[in-house]
Amino acid sequence: MNRQVQIPMLQTERLWLRQLHPGDVDDIYLLFSNPNVMKYDGGFVLRDKKQADEYIYTIGNSLVYENKVGITWAFIERKTGDFVGTGGIKNWYGRQHAEVGLVIAEQYWNRKFGREALQKIVQFAFEKLKLTYVYAATLPENKQAIRLVERLGFRFQGWNHHYWLANQYVQAMVFIQENPLYKKIEERNDIGKK
Asked: pLDDT tens-digit profile of 73-113?
């Protein structure tokens, strides 16, 4: 009997981080079809709910986690049960490092949900996956994302001039956070690359 690995549910003070499921299709569509939200994520917006369903089926699938490619959670406000956003770990491929990231629905901006979710994701990456470091890549004009990662202790590592985003290569700023359980890593040239 094949038993699929389950995406673990995580909890913060105000959020549940849980596996995406088909019931999230409307929320995923609203999130990724909002041009204000997607402005700093390559500008690509979903055109229909079928694309949202495909996102849940592919990116949100627990096989992505089981195969050590990444892990994606839905962020749910514990008090209301409302969908706040999504994010997780990507570009892992079983290595000792991976990328972290998230997307927050516009109505939840400036309420520190992103900070809370990203802190928990980084904690999971270090404590459960035992990664030596995580990195976050962002467009230079995304000042809120830059402030977020810096406040969480990420440091600027450098530029990735060939970062794949929304079906195109872009220039991205790369920030790194080292696992405090491991000794400091040397400057690396492979950060942010597949």
From this structure: 999 999 999 999 999 999 999 999 999 999 999 999 999 99
Mean pLDDT for 171-190 is 77
Domain membership flag for residue 50: yes
The reply to whether 91 falls in a domain is yes
Residue 167 tokens, joined: 């079906």
Give how many domains the chain has, as a whole number: 1
Hey, what long-range contacts does 149-152 have (CB within 8 A, 24 or more apart)?
A: 149/118, 149/175, 149/177, 150/175, 151/115, 152/115, 152/118, 152/119, 152/122, 152/177
Asked if residue 57 belongs to a domain, the reply is yes
- Per-residue model confidence (pLDDT) at position 188: 52
Three-state DSSP state, 56: helix
> Where does the pLDDT of residue 128 fall: very low under 50, low under 70, confident under 90, or very high at 90 and above?
very high
C-alpha distances out from residue 164 to 74, 115, 124, 139, 169, Å: 23, 24, 25, 11, 5
CB count in 10 Å sphere of residue 187: 8
Domain interval for residue 89: 10-132
End-to-end CA distance of the chain: give it in Å, rounded: 33
CATH of the domain at 57: 3.40.630.30
The reply to whether 49 falls in a domain is yes
